[in-house]
Every structure is written in structure tokens, then in C-alpha cells.
Amino acid sequence: MTSNTKSPKQSRVTSSADRDELLNVFNRYAHHEHLGERYMTPHEFLQDYLGYLIGDNIDPTTLDILSSLVDLNKDQKITLTKFINFESLLLASDSLYRLAFQLFDRHGQGFITFDDFQYIISATKNFKEFPFNFNSDFVTTHFGAKRQRQITYKEFTQILLDFIDDQTIQAFRKFDKDNLGCISFKNFEIILNELRQYQLAEFISKHLNDVVKLSCSTSPPNQISYSYFTAFLQLLSNIESMRKIYLAVNYKKAHTYKSSMITKEEFLTEAQHFSYTTPLQIDILFAITHLLHKDHAGHEIHKDYIELSDFDLISANEHLLPYRLRSEIVDEYYKIEHQSIFMKVLESGYRFTLGNDRQNVFFCVLKRQK
Length: 370
Fold this sequence. Notes:
Elements: H1 16-29, E1 32-34, E2 37-40, H2 42-49, H3 60-67, E3 78-79, H4 80-90, H5 95-104, H6 114-122, H7 125-129, H8 137-143, H9 153-175, E4 182-184, H10 185-195, H11 202-206, H12 208-215, E5 223-225, H13 226-237, H14 239-253, E6 262-263, H15 264-271, H16 279-297, E7 305-306, H17 308-314, E8 349-351, E9 362-364
Antiparallel strand pairs: 1-2, 2-3, 4-5, 6-7, 8-9
Helix pairs in contact: 2-3, 9-10, 12-16, 13-16, 14-15
């Protein structure tokens, strides 16, 4: 693997004690030897060591894709050096992105080709329900007209974000069969639950219909325009920007009087100084907080306002995992119980921990549905 996928500065230095501990663990599972060096196969690492994807109905493509995570040079041998390097990689500050990169770097070359990208995306459950158009401008822009560009790690981190946005837009167009510039509320809900569920706090998901009724003025009713669609998604992606607007208003108010409540008018005035924030996004935000306060009070609220604690409730999922790397995992034959009450989807995780003082790193991986 080239320096594009692993930087010494971003990996934790393994001490002698750590190495001894890792060696003991490694030797319990490394039953093969080549040229005097012990190793385990990638499948053994995943199934024997992690105890993951065990059974008679496991899709071999899924097993091969996930096994490639630790097999950096794809030689089918997990040596002690790879074992230790992978443990260090998991503790890197950008470990989730680096692990995702290794999934796509199928041949261990240190870069990703269009064929790599297409192969992995086509193996996901979302692709079956929302087939991605690989002849789109997105692909041409990132991989070139002849699909010959080789994507580095840093470029990949941005492409991954752009891909999810483009996939969501393609889903909107799929439901807008008559090219009217709008889709039904039902289809809007499907897109959010299937492609953007990781951004939906439990409260928003539960009260989505009421949020839309309060903030969407599209005619006819129960129709979601493309403008509203993008505003809603941008709001979910930029909750932290909204929090900064609140803090800016609150700081100015602190010089006159103290109050944790910020009115919609105060918020709108300050939001003009923040790019990519629109009145429509703020309408949606205050529709959500209105319902939050109403639910908490148990009766109708006649004043629209927002408090700092509201942001934690409407972005509850994002601190569990870098949301852009989460993927829904459902298999007809093999299901894993979800890890948190905040997650509505079944997902699998990889936890690498050796002792109470170790840091847990949680990585949701892509899985193919048969």
C-alpha cells in the first residue's frame, strides 16, 4: 500500500507491550506458515478471529470484499506485520475513511479505478433498490470521459460524499417520472429512510409528516418540490452550521440580557451572514423545533423559538458514527442485531479491542444482498 492510504503520523505507535499482546492474539489464529513466517487467511481473520459472517448461507462476494480490509497487498496472507499495522490503522484519526478506501482498493495498488468503484457500489443493497447510473456526469467528472483516472485516498474521501449526494438526486429523478419537479411525500420518505436514514434523528423520522406540513407550502398538498427536497437534505447535513448561528445570536444577546431562547426572527437575521443557509432551511428547522417543544410541553406552542439543547435532539445520530460511511445492511439469510436504539437499520460493525484501555473503533461496512 502506498503512502496515499497510510501515514505514519496518523497511526498510533505500537509499544513493546502492545506488540507482545498482539503477538499472543495473532498466534492463536495464525495456523499457516510460508517461508518461515506464520499467517492466517483473510477469511480466517474475519470468520475465526472476529467470529463474523459464519454460516452456510454467506455470500462469497460479501466475504471476499470484507476480507480485503486487512489484506493490504491482496496476497491472501495476514502476517503479524499486517495484523499490527491494521490495528494501528483502526486508531488513526481518519480510520473510517481509510478502511472504506481499502474496501474500494480491490487490488492493493494505493489508488481506486472506475472498475473498483463500480464493483463495490454494485455490491451494495442500496444499488439493488436504487440502481446508480454509472454513465452520469458525476462519473465523467471524477473518473474522466474514458474512465481512466486513478483516484487517490484524499480524492476518494470527497468523491464518497459527492456520490451519496448524486445517488440521492438520481433517486428523486427516478420517482419524478413525469419530470414535474416534485415527488410524493411517500417517495420522499422512502428516499430519506433508504438513503439518508443515518442523518435522521429519531424524532424527525417519527414526526416527518408533521414537519413537512408545517414547513412545505407546495401546491398540490403532499407533493415535495425539488427545492424543498434539497433544502431538507442540506439542513440535515449542516446542523452544525445552524448551531453556530444560534451561538452567534446568543453571544450578542448576552451583552443585553440572558436567555437561552432564540426567536425565528433573530435567527433569520443572523443567518444572512452564513453562506449556504436559506430561509427555507430555517423554516424546516423551526418546524422541527416547534414540534419538539410541543411534544415536550404536551400542548400547542404559540411562539417559535430554538434552544441550544434542540440541536442535540435533531442531530442525535451523527455523533454515533461519521454518518457518511454508514450503510444499511440487510441480508435475506444473515441478519445482525442493531447496536443502538437510535439506529433504525440493521448494521454490522467491526470492533477491534484488546483490553480495557484500548480505544474501540466502530466501522460499518458494505454488505451485499443476495
